[in-house]
């Protein structure tokens, strides 16, 4: 019998479309036939093997109702699970109800579990520690109040104590202070004011007043209690020396907008016990901070808003990992905007890419450069185009990390600007005098773009929007971007892949999974599709399978050590040794606000053997920070294995 020839792609497409149109019409009889046919064409096309081999495939993840959360932060743990932190999830009602949430997702069986969340980690900072725990510090102590909603004038009251005797003084919540005109103001929380200190100066004893700050709200509504300039306030109920030594001072009391206030709690999330463990508190309250590890294993907390919504003026601090406590770092005073994009380089310096999330000065601290955290020196890196549009941009250490190249992608104007840029620029930080040079433009101007390092030395870029929080852009009410593309560093080109089906903008994340797929979460649009009503947080989850997953059988890692030292060789067994072309250690992501200081892909030297591969881990801690990594073996077609977890010491 003569064998049947395989139908041509065109014939298969025509037959498949006919069947899909009929089925679609039967299932959705009340919808226009043209719309159903269009969807059928798209569904058939994106599922063709030839298409998936070049464009990949997006799929929706079914999330049980009880586990749908507002994903503000996400991190891949060395157990293979994804930690999804919402905290209050940018929801005032949840904050006031103290309803804070964290969910764990296991991509191996699509199972979800709830994790008890002790405080509001919404807009905290985080990074992985050498033992694989996730350090989470800061968060939200108070929500913003828009100017239109401020009924009672308020301000930061500095309570002063000029008496060195009697120890600290405690004032309970609701304590009343009065202005010279008799207006009354009550403090929002209990405050402890230290005693004054006696100091010797020039042979004389001087007294330095103790002080503490607290929010104070006018008792009366309206503008009458507004005090626009610095003034002193008396504390009700005090008499004699107390009335003279204890008083309040406020720079201003107004009905202006009140920004989010930062928290100072700090935790280590343990992937094994799956719970948060309290550490010592931060020395400063921080909202929107960046946390980044150093070569010695300690962590720096950089920038953020304090408990009164003020940008911290360069006060950074250090987490002593071995002691599980934070200490001030006055020797590292340096100003950055909130959520600065920081990358640890091979020589131990930290590169500030210029990416940030916007709070703070629109000029100070915005210059990219290399920060020497041993000497607190800063070497600017010039050449960045569209420098005023770095807010909500993203930056990534391009693979392999040995190349020491950082790319900045997209971004927008200061504040709620409708402007955005398609610019990418690349800095080669191995150069003696590094500077940014132009990279290829993105297909469209983009804020909030996720950039994910893949094991084949490429970078997936996905999501984002052209307008602020997915809103107005060039006359359109919504501006979410659905195009995705893969950047090839060696050729310096973007190649289009399949479009996503869910918009991702502010508060969105994308993370590489151990099986080589990419999970995308979150999205917090300012408006709905009409542009007239408030937006709804995007709780649907989508997963992208890159083209390399459709190009043949994957290599397999069947054996190998669970830990390896820097500078040492390790052997990993594989039945596919003859086709292994490269080995990569990919550090897992911990991302929020498209800021991810952790992800990097490190090339390993490779020697094939008949039944495995010998790899050598580089020696520099700045190149390969201590911690857990995904080891991928990649074949000669660019197809990666499923990762094997390895701890680098």
TrEMBL record:
Keywords: Signal. Residues 152-253 form the GlxA-like beta barrel domain. Residues 554-648 form the Galactose oxidase-like Early set domain. It comes from the Bacteria. GO terms for biological process: carbohydrate metabolic process. Gene3D superfamilies: Galactose oxidase/kelch, beta-propeller, Immunoglobulins. InterPro entries: Gal_Oxase/kelch_b-propeller, Gal_Oxidase_central_sf, GlxA-like_b-barrel, Glyoxal_oxidase_N, GO-like_E_set, Ig-like_fold, Ig_E-set. The keyword Signal applies. Residues 280-548 form the Glyoxal oxidase N-terminal domain. This is Uncharacterized protein.
């Amino acid at each position: 019998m003569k064998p049947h020839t395989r139908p041509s792609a065109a014939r298969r497409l025509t037959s498949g479309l006919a069947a899909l149109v009929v089925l679609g019409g039967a299932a959705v009889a009340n919808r226009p036939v043209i719309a159903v046919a269009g969807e059928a064409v798209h569904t058939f096309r994106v599922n063709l093997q030839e298409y998936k081999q070049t464009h990949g495939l997006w799929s929706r993840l079914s999330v049980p109702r009880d586990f749908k959360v507002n994903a503000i932060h996400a991190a891949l743990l060395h157990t293979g699970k994804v930690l999804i932190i919402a905290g209050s999830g940018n929801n005032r009602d949840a904050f006031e109800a103290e309803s804070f949430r964290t969910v764990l997702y296991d991509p191996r069986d699509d199972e979800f579990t709830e994790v008890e969340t002790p405080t509001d980690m919404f807009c905290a900072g985080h990074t992985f520690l050498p033992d694989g725990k996730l350090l989470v510090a800061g968060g939200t102590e108070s929500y913003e109040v828009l100017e239109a909603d401020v009924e009672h004038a308020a301000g930061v009251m500095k309570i002063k104590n000029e008496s060195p005797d009697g120890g600290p003084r405690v004032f309970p919540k609701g304590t009343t202070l009065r202005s010279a005109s008799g207006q009354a103001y009550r403090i929002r929380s209990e405050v402890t004011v230290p005693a004054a200190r006696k100091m010797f100066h020039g042979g004389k004893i001087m007294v330095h007043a103790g002080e503490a700050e607290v929010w104070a709200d006018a008792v009366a509504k309206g503008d009458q209690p507004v005090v626009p300039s610095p003034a002193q306030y008396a504390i009700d109920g005090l008499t004699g020396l107390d009335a003279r030594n204890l008083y309040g001072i406020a720079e201003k009391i107004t009905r202006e907008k009140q920004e989010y206030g930062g928290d100072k709690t700090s935790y280590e999330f343990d992937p094994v016990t799956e719970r948060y463990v309290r550490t010592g508190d931060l020395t400063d309250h921080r909202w929107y901070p960046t946390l980044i590890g150093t070569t010695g294993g300690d962590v720096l907390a950089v920038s953020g808003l304090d408990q009164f919504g003020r940008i911290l003026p360069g006060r950074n601090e250090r987490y002593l990992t071995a002691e599980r406590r934070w200490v001030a770092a006055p020797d590292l005073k340096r100003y950055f905007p909130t959520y600065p994009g920081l990358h640890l380089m091979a020589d131990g310096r930290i590169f500030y890419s210029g990416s940030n999330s916007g709070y703070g000065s629109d000029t100070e601290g915005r210059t990219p450069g290399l920060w020497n955290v041993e000497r607190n020196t800063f070497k600017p890196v010039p050449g960045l185009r569209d420098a005023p549009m770095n807010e909500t941009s993203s930056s990534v250490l391009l693979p392999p990390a040995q190349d020491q190249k950082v790319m900045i992608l997209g971004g927008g104007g200061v504040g709620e600007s409708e402007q955005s840029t398609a610019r990418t620029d690349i800095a080669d930080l191995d150069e003696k005098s590094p500077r940014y040079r132009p990279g290829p433009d993105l297909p469209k101007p983009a804020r909030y773009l996720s950039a994910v390092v893949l094991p084949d030395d490429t970078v997936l870029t996905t999501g984002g929007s052209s307008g602020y929080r997915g809103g107005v852009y060039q006359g359109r009410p919504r501006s979410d971007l659905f195009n995705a593309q893969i950047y090839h560093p060696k050729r310096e080109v973007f190649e289009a892949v399949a479009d996503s089906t869910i918009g991702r903008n502010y508060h969105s994340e994308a993370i590489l999974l151990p099986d080589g797929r990419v999970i995308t979460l979150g999205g917090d649009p300012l408006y709905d599709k009409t542009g007239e009503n408030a937006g709804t947080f995007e709780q649907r989850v989508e997963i992208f399978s890159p083209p390399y997953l459709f190009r043949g059988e994957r290599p397999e890692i069947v054996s190998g050590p669970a830990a390896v030292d820097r500078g040492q060789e390790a052997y990993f067994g594989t039945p596919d040794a003859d086709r292994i072309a490269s080995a990569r250690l990919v550090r897992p992501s911990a991302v929020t606000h498209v800021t991810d200081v952790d992800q990097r892909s490190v090339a390993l030297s490779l020697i094939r053997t008949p039944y495995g591969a010998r790899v050598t881990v580089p020696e520099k801690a700045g190149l390969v920070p201590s911690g857990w990594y995904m080891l991928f073996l990649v074949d000669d077609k660019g197809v990666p294995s499923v990762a094997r977890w390895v701890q680098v010491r």
